[in-house]
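Dear V.,

Thank you for sending over the compound details. I've combined the ligand you provided, fe (ii) ion, with the protein sequence from our construct and run the structure prediction for the complex. I'm sharing the raw inputs here so there's no ambiguity about protonation or stereochemistry in the SMILES, which I know was a concern on your side last time.
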Amino acid sequence: MVQFDFSSETMQPNFDEFLDSPSVPKDVSFLQSDGLLHQPSSVLPAYEHLPESRTAMEELTPGEWNDLNLYRARYNQEQQARQALDMLAASKDSPSYGFRVNNYRHCLQCATMLYQDGADEETIVCGLFHDLGFIVCPDNHGEFSATLLANYISEKNHWMLRHHALFLDHHASGNLQLDANARESYRGHPYFEYTAEWVARYDQTAIQTQYETAPLEFFESMVYRVFTRPSKGVKIHY
Ligand SMILES: [Fe+2]
Ligand SMILES: [Fe+2]
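Below is the predicted structure of the protein with fe (ii) ion bound, written out as structure tokens.
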């Protein structure tokens, strides 16, 4: 059996250093202003950021809140898709989780498979982002992607994203740390079969090095179109 070396030499540079550093730095000479005060916005140049005299949100007048609300509507339209894409792009060169493709490639491959099978644009975008949170919150990454897209996708795809990780366990029967039958508690749910098929065809299989995978740019316009749909106004409270 192959023995893996999990000593600190195999970790990223600075890994031990970060863990050993003091939790609250004593030297704060690095602190600086963000420089946005009294600046025109890059998103909406007619909008000027709040004056420096405002140091707490409760100080804002109804007029300022109105301006902010108008600004945010435009900001969301322009920036949600862009920043979601940037979050995914940031993981392009990240180490793999142990498969031969990293999480970034897994997401692209999943989306490509959906595209090749003629899936609708929304479902392709769900594939692209289904594991966006996998590295930073692995135990709840289904909720992460479901929440990210909640206001722009169908109830069916939202349910699928929320539950896809648990359904994926069915395909990891060799992993004795998981319950391969965990999905059975949802048997009979209207979206059970859809989720089971989605995971079987596009998630568990998207770990291939030889699969012709489309680049992120290929999906950009789809992502913009989904994120600029009228919001469903869903607010998720746990
Ligand atoms: Fe996942
Ligand atoms: Fe996945």
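A first observation: The chain is about 45% helix and 0% strand.

Warm regards,
I. M.
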